[in-house]
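Need tokens for this chain, all 157 residues.
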Amino acid sequence: MSDDRRTEIRPADTADAAAIAQIHVDSRAATMPYLPPQTRGQDEVTAWVANIVLKTCRVWVAVRDGEVLGYASLEGDMLEDLYLRPDVRRQGIGTRLLDVVREHSPEGLSLYVFQQNTDARAFYERHGFTVVDTNDGSRNMENLPDMTMRWTPDRAH
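Here are the structure tokens for all 157 residues:
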């Protein structure tokens, strides 16, 4: 367990795009081996982060000693992404990012999670999210069964 007090959560900017893209790719590969192989190169993922994610979402990064360790993106009340570098999982960084996102979603927060992603589902359940629906995968590009989870402040306190 590292000294989490050295980890800063701050708004992301375009200079963070390459680091965010690397975390996105590495985390998905490490934690979701059931996903189809990545067909996009690092430059394409970085362009997606810079031109789509950072322009359509509010994005925060967790930074320690100048290194981006994870990120979260919020579009409206939908948590679009919460990913950490695989080597910094289970240190409280995901919780810190989620706390910032929840501060910016006072009416509540929804997210999609793959049904197979039992670690993420357990993480969100520990933080007060409940399953509100399930889907056969027709609504995601991976075509894998997923579920919608929702957190509302009333249930969390």
